[in-house]
Write the structure tokens for this entry.
Amino acid sequence: MKKLIETLKNIWSIEELRKRILFTILLIAIYRVGCGITLPGINPQMLSLDSGEGGLLGLFNMFAGGAFSKASIFALGVMPYISASIFMQLAGIVIPQFAKMQREESGRKKMNQYTRYLTVLVTAFQASAYVAYLRTQTAAAIVPEFGAFMFWLSTVVVLTAGTLFVMWMGEKITDKGIGNGTSLIIMVGILARFPESVLQEFFARNVGGGGGLLIFLIEIAIFIAVIVGLILLTQGTRKIPLNYARRIVGSNNAAKEVSGARDFIPLKVNSSGVMPIIFAQAILFIPATLVGFSQNETAQGFVRAMSDPQSLWYNITYAVLVIAFTYFYTALIFNPTEMADNLKRNNSFIPGVKPGEPTADYIATIMDRITLPGAIFLAVAGILPGIAGLFKVTSGFASFFGGTSMLIGVGVILDTLQQIESHLLMRQYDGLMKTGRIMGRQSAGASV
């Protein structure tokens, strides 16, 4: 406890870090207030939107911090920006012109600008779909004096402006705050549901007695163990030893040979982050959407089985998709050939491995080997909420037993702690931990 208090004092004593933290808190507070402001033309007292818990709408609502089900001005959150960012990231891998732009500073600025333009288009499209959803689900809450066209126009403009404002706040938190602004906004929205979920589980377990309090404490202990496992999954690395060639330093008269330094290449066990889980959930939503237009009883039974997180076939399919997408996304974002070329240009090499193509093959082999256990653990983390539901855990609290919610939460918190620890170490203060270093994720896709 004394160590914690001393660390907090050190954090507060660094003026730059203190300003960054306060600035971040201010923007997050503005975002959370905006999540409670209803769209123009909507009567909040008559609003009754289904949050779509466990479905595609539930995923949107989670990323929007609950604003989607409240018809808020921030109802779309940063989802359009995330979609545009992922598209541009994949385009940089597939299209050679974009790949060249990503390697240059001016090119990256252009890519960021293209991402913003694409965000406007995606937001306008999703806003139009959201208007149709509002008219279908809660037409009584729409003020009739607005008119159909005026309501559509005002909603599209407000939602687009809201998404761009949230995107701007995320960029400002990244530049002037404690970093990872977009991820931090998503995490705050997700964890905002946590206190209410814990209280619901507590009261549900204590209704009628029967040792409910003991069961609740066991659930909390398992929940903590899940968090520890997710931290190990997020921070797990495989270190490949690396040597630098000897070089001559100094002039001809005073030249001396400097022996090669030793280092390592850290390869993440889970380099794809939470993206495989998001992709797998999106794929599982497609059959339910397509069969929803059919009246076939067999098809309807298939949809029920594939839409129930507690069914056996759902969990098996979900786990297989997560493992497959982990390999797919890792292959997209990880380029061993480029890494081998960078090592060769920097006069560094892996002991016992020839530079060039043999080095690329060696790194690719190591990455394939460590991706398998990482993918399996990620699949287990993905199906844990469904397993928790089998033990009668409330749906709100069960969603925090792994899955998208806790993976994003754990990853973003580790990133934030890493930023704070960097500020402390730069000013000769002790880090947040006596031993070891906090390692955040290293890829943009993982932050999403």
About this structure: The mean pLDDT is 80. The chain has two domains: 1-192, 194-401. The CA atoms of residues 35 and 128 lie 19 Å apart. Residues 357-390 form the longest helix (34 residues).
